[in-house]
Amino acid sequence: MFNNIAVLTVKSRRLMDIASLSAKLFPNAVYHLIGVFPPLDSRPMPSTIYQEVMNEIVDDALEAAELTLNSLGVMAIKKVKLVGKPKKVITDYIIKNRIDLVVMTAGVTDAHSFQLSGEVSKSMLMLPGKSLLVYPSAAKKVSGEIGRVTLVATPECIDRKAVELLSYLRKIEGGFDLNIICRRPNSEECERLSAELKGSFPSSSIVWVEGLGDFPEKYHQLSSISDLTVSCKGASMPSPDRRSGNESFIYEVKILELSRCPVLFL
Q1: How many C-beta neighbours within 10 Å does residue 105 have?
Q2: What is the mean pLDDT of residues 136-147?
Q3: Rounded mean pLDDT of 62-82?
Q4: Could you give the CA distance from residue 80 to residue 245 in angstroms, rounded to a whole number?
Q5: Longest dimension (CA), the chain
Q6: For position 28, which CATH number holds?
Q7: Same domain for 158 and 130
Q8: What whole-number distance in Å separates Cα of residue 171 and Cα of residue 108?
Q9: Residue 262 in contact with residue 26, Cβ under 8 Å?
Q10: Does 131 share its domain with 213?
Q11: What's the CA gap between 125 and 252, in Å, rounded?
């Protein structure tokens, strides 16, 4: 499904949990474990001390991720240390090395802020052509077992890409319940998608959203009983702040702020 997977490492239980889920679902890939030395800039700490401290922090995070993934038997692991502004060096590495999937956490601790923070996280959402597996800040603990999946069937996600992913997950997991959440304007497309998936997911069901105002509550409820959300990057959801001018970004941030389970953006 994915050939090259990048894990944005930090030494946290949450990152290990989402990396473990990725390894369970996509074991036959090369995992690029990425640690970054940010530039010193105007920090008062002497550069040699800063380098020693940062080297230890990065090494600890890389080692923890490597141990976790090795224990799960992924195909290959490549540890990478990058130096520079995190947003730039990570983006450059992902593009140059043809990364298919980026694994990251939207929060380092279990303190649920319900907000997506950090320029790296936000830049990954806007990076075109790259899938993301994210552990949202408000998500419940990752169980590692996929018993129920919620597909947010935006117009961008009603295509072969979503069907192929769900079929792949079914082979890996051996079956799970599927909920498809759709907006009424896309009713014909959603009905066709549901009919196509009925053979593989006989207990699948469609949850209809009459308008954008209904979406947050219904999606939050579904994600609370799901183990994974599947959706697509680039979907449109009108911004509450019309001046922002970036509707697709608003949609993806809103999904992550609402979700109580990990999210896989295709």
Answers
A1: 26
A2: 84
A3: 96
A4: 35
A5: 63
A6: 3.40.50.620
A7: no
A8: 31
A9: no
A10: no
A11: 7
Which residue type occupies 95? I
Candidate from 82-96, 164-178, 218-232, 244-258 with smallest mean pLDDT: 244-258
135, 165, 184 - which closes a domain: 135
Confidence of residue 257 (pLDDT cuts 50, 70, 90): confident
Whether residue 141 lies inside any domain: the answer is no
Strands 4-8, 76-83: pairing kind: unpaired
Q: Which of 135, 169, 203 is the last residue of a domain?
A: 135
- Would residue 256 count as lying in a domain? yes
pLDDT by residue (tens digit) across 85-113?
Answer: 889 999 999 999 999 999 999 865 555 44
Q: 131-135 and 263-265: which strand pairing?
A: antiparallel
Q: Compute the distance between CA of residue 129 and CA of residue 35 in angstroms, rounded to an integer.
A: 22
Task: Look at residue 243 in the predicted model and tell me its pLDDT.
Answer: 46
Question: Which residue is it, tokens 């390894």?
Answer: 23
Range of weakest confidence among 29-33, 170-174, 202-206, 238-242: 238-242
Q: Could you give the CA distance from residue 169 to residue 177 in angstroms, rounded to a whole number?
A: 12
In sequence order, what are the beta bridge partners of 100?
none
Residue 75's pLDDT is 96
Tell me if 136 sits within 8 A of 224, measured CB to CB: no
Residues 15 and 123 placed together within one structural domain of the fold: yes
Sequence-separated (6 or more) residues with CB below 8 Å from residue 44: none
- Domain containing 14 equals 4-135
Q: Could you tell me if residue 143 is inside a domain?
A: no
Residues 6+ apart with CB under 8 A from 46: none
Average pLDDT, the chain: 84
Q: Are residues 68 and 18 in the same domain?
A: yes
